[in-house]
Each structure stands twice: as structure tokens, then as C-alpha cells.
TrEMBL record:
It comes from Bradyrhizobium forestalis. Its EC number is 2.1.1.33. It catalyses: guanosine(46) in tRNA + S-adenosyl-L-methionine = N(7)-methylguanosine(46) in tRNA + S-adenosyl-L-homocysteine. InterPro entries: SAM-dependent_MTases_sf (IPR029063), tRNA_(Gua-N-7)_MeTrfase_Trmb (IPR003358), tRNA_methyltr_TrmB_bact (IPR055361). GO terms for molecular function: tRNA (guanine(46)-N7)-methyltransferase activity. CDD domains: AdoMet_MTases. This is tRNA (guanine-N(7)-)-methyltransferase. Keywords: Methyltransferase, S-adenosyl-L-methionine, Transferase, tRNA processing. S-adenosyl-L-methionine binds at residues 67, 92, 119, 141. GO terms for cellular component: tRNA methyltransferase complex.
């Protein structure tokens, strides 16, 4: 991702979400979905946000949730099908991931997902205050090298941004198999006045929450001997 030296505010925003824009060449059908289906589902944050985020969906959703960096889309697609009255926004700048979720939407005729192929921080800034019931961040890039820690999504500023769009009682859920990033997330959320960690015993973060859909990355981590933590934080 190129830097914009003349716009430091935008640079700060871009640091909130880093990801590869494109990987393997898309197959013909995938490219067709990007060209034809994505425009019907993509959010245009250059326009004014609706007063009520539930109005993003047609028909209007009972509730709205956001998944940041949905990867292959397995979790997002499963949640959307399990909760058809809820509206789901998926944010993913990686084009191949976007193609994968579009294929699942087409195959299962999923109507309650909207997509944003860009910077999650910009999406959070656009969404109305207290408009979401939940935000999921599942196996994000850990950026393990110390000099890259500023690129991790979980930062004080993004925590504040999530707190603004989550309603009271809403949740931020974080899944990661990298111990250092889990500790980082716990320490950053602990100093926030807006969130409380919901774990009461070890199994509350060692085991997935009920109904959790394991992703391909999660299965790969388990095969390679890495144990994930499943962290839940309630918006006060």
C-alpha cells in the first residue's frame, strides 16, 4: 500500500487496517462477481450515512453486525444464514476474499450481507453512532515484528471508533492464535473506559462461543498446534 506523504491524517487512518489488495489471479466467474454482483452489495461511504444503519438493508434489518477482515468469508456467510433478520456488513480489502464471499452469497442466495472493500477505520467513521450490536475481528494479521505493531487493527483510536458505533450492551469479539496479539488486545481493551472483558473462567476464552463457525485459518492453526483465544468484550 503506497503512502501519501501530503496527507498525514489519511496515513493514520490507513494504518488502522492493512492487507494485501490482491493475491492469486481471479477465475473468470470470480471476476464476473466482482464486476456484476459487488456493485449491488457495496457500501458507498462517500455518500451520507443513513440515520439508522438498519436501513442499509432491504428489507430493513432488525439488527446490524460488522465483521472486519472476513478472509474467506466462512464465518460471515454462516452467521448471515443463521440470523436472517440481522444485517451483516463485511469489510475486506483483499480482493480474493471478496470474490470468495460473493460466491457464497450467490450460491446460497444470501440477502442480508453488505460489503465494503476498503479501510475499516473509514467505515467505522462513516457508520452512525450506536448503530451496531456486534463487531467481529477473527484471526487478523498479527504483524508480529515490533516495528509493525502500529499496523495492528487493535489500537486505542480504533477501540474508540468501535465504542462510538457499538450500542450499549453490544460486543466486540476477537479471535487470534498468536499469544502476543491476544495479550496486546487485552491490555488495550483493559485501559478503555468503554469495554469490559466478559470472561469469568478460563474456558470462556479457551473455547469458541456457542455457534461459532471455525474458519479455514482457524483449522490450519489447530493443525499446526496453535491454540486460539476467543475474547469477548461488552460495550458499557
Amino acid at each position: 500500500m503506497s503512502e501519501r506523504k501530503s496527507d498525514p491524517d489519511r496515513e493514520d487512518s490507513e494504518r488502522a487496517f492493512f492487507g494485501r489488495r490482491k493475491g492469486h489471479k481471479l477465475r473468470q466467474h470470480q471476476a464476473g462477481l466482482i464486476e456484476q454482483l459487488l456493485p449491488h452489495l457495496a457500501l458507498d461511504i462517500d455518500g451520507e450515512a443513513p440515520a439508522d444503519a438498519r436501513e442499509i438493508f432491504d428489507p430493513a434489518a432488525d439488527d446490524v453486525r460488522l465483521e472486519i477482515g472476513f478472509g474467506g468469508g466462512e464465518h460471515l456467510a454462516a452467521e448471515a444464514q443463521n440470523f436472517p433478520a440481522t444485517g451483516f456488513i463485511g469489510c475486506e480489502p483483499y480482493v480474493n476474499g471478496m470474490a470468495k464471499i460473493l460466491a457464497q452469497i450467490e450460491a446460497a442466495n444470501i440477502g442480508n450481507i453488505r460489503l465494503f472493500a476498503g479501510d475499516a477505520a473509514e467505515l467505522l467513521a462513516w457508520l452512525p453512532k450506536a448503530s451496531l450490536s456486534r463487531i467481529d475481528l477473527i484471526h487478523p494479521d498479527p504483524w508480529p515484528k515490533r516495528r509493525h505493531w502500529k499496523r495492528r487493527f487493535v489500537q486505542d483510536r480504533t477501540i474508540a471508533a468501535m465504542a462510538r458505533v457499538l450500542r450499549s450492551g453490544g460486543e466486540f469479539r476477537f479471535v487470534c492464535d498468536i499469544d502476543d496479539y491476544c495479550a496486546w488486545t487485552l491490555s488495550h481493551l483493559a485501559r478503555s473506559q468503554d469495554f469490559v472483558w466478559l470472561a469469568e473462567r478460563a474456558d470462556d476464552f479457551r473455547q469458541p462461543w456457542p455457534g461459532y463457525t471455525m474458519t479455514r485459518y482457524g483449522r490450519k492453526a489447530a493443525r499446526e498446534g496453535r491454540k486460539a483465544a476467543y475474547l469477548r468484550f461488552r460495550r458499557i
